[in-house]
Every structure is written in structure tokens, then in C-alpha cells.
Amino acid sequence: MWETIIVNPFTNVLLLIYKLIGGNFGIAIILFTILIRVITHPLMASQIKSSTKMTQFQQSKQWQDIQKKYKGDKEKLAQEQMNLYKELGISPFASCLPSLIQIPLIFGLYQSIMRALAASPAQLLILTRVVYSFLPISNLVPLNSQFLWMNLGQPERVYLFGFGVPLLAVIVALTTYVQSKVTMPASTNPGDQGAMMNKMMALYMPLLLGYFALTFASGLSIYFITGNLIGIAQYALLGKVNWRAVIPGYKPETTVLARNK
Fold first, then answer.
1. Where are the alpha helices (H) located in 70-156, listed in sequence order?
2. Residue-range definition of the domain harbouring residue 139
3. Does 259 map to a domain?
4. Please, what is the average pLDDT of the chain?
5. Number of domains observed in the structure of the chain
6. Quick check: is 258 in a domain?
7. Is 121 inside a domain boundary?
8. Over the stretch 17-46, which tens digit does the pLDDT of each residue have?
9. Is 227 domain-assigned?
10. Angle between helices 97-117 and 25-39 (to 10 degrees)
11. What is the per-residue DSSP string for 150-202?
């Protein structure tokens, strides 16, 4: 089922884009990433809506009053916070959903890239069995795996003075961190479970994706970087980016800015 629903369609879409643009697999991955972002836009829109609701919640007089009332009782504060979430129809974990959904897409894309490149006779045999009939496989393989300075089927390294520097892995980790921080809803409550989950995601996702970029095919890094930049741009165009959150030690203001609902 995984092959039928994820890997095989991904492989065929990549090959179709590769054919249409004249044989540049790096550009094919970038265009494929844009396509995935368009398809998953409703999830992104839901995340933006959830982040906006969360920011309004943190600034609302109702929440500020609850914080003052239960300042010395963290357990009761958390309980009242969850009750207020339920009353206002807010999901504290909704902003994490796109990041979690991205994980199976990452593995599916990695398998698709490696399958499309078909580096061995056995892989080529598998590829010929899964390519859809409308694609002329004999005219496509072997694919051109070179893009800029990298081989898209191998982990990327830039060699300086005899040392291999994983430039793309650094860029992947950095752009993932920036995207996580600028799109994270502000929280004034250290015990907020949603805020804690967001902070964990902002810490672990850059490390996880950076590790993937370090060890897996560089084609996957192209997908990460493109996706991160598009995600930041989506928020920026809607005026939802919190650039100050990137500054180390940044803390959201606790001033009451919104009316009580």
C-alpha cells in the first residue's frame, strides 16, 4: 500500500516533470516540491489560522485573567487553559500537524528519488515495473543526476582544503529553524502544552532534517530547502511572520492587546 499510494506516484510525477522540463532532475525536485505545497495548502492555511487563533488567545483578557487568578497553581492553570481551549474551539497542537505530516512525505520522496535515479541494474528493473505506461522509460534513463555542484543521488559535500563540508545540511537545518520560529505562535505561559510541543518541534525538526540532509541523497536536501523557503514566503505574504522570534532569548509581550471574547 505504501508503494502504491506514495512511492510509485511520487516516482512517476518526478519522471514526468523531468521529461517536461528537458532533463534537469534538480529543477524537477524543486517543481515537485512546489506541487506538494500547493496540494497541502489547505493544511498550511489551517496551521496559519490556528496560529492566529493561538496568538489572539494568548493576548486575550480572558486568558490573562485566568493567569492572574491561578498564578501559583500550575496544575489548575493548565486545566483552566485546556477548558478555555475547548470553549473557544482551539486545538493547541494544530500548528504542529504540517510538520508531522511532512515526515512520511520525506521518506516517500527519498525512496522516489533513489528509485528514479536507478543506480544499479536491479533498481533499473524495479523502475521499469513501476513506471506508468504513458512515460517512455527508455528515453528517460539513465537520469541526469548532476545539479549545480552536487550528485542528487549522493550526500552533498563541498570540499575545502581536503575537508568535506556539508553545506546543504547546514542550510537545511538553518531554514528549518527559521521557518519553525517565525511561524510559531507566541505563548506567555511556560506550562502551555501546545507551546511546549511547538518549542520541541522547533528544536528537533532542524536537527532531524539536518541529519537527513547529512546522510541521505542531496536531492532530499533540495526538497527541504525549497519547502522551507516556500513555507516562510507563505506566512510572509499573509503578514503572519514573527521575525523577532528568530532572535535568541526573544520573549513574547504579555500586554493585553485583544478584547475579551
1. 74-88, 97-117, 121-130, 137-140
2. 2-246
3. no
4. 78
5. 1
6. no
7. yes
8. 998 998 899 999 999 999 988 887 777 777
9. yes
10. 150
11. EETTS---EEETTEEE-HHHHHHHHHHHHHHHHTSPP-S-TT-HHHHHHHHHH
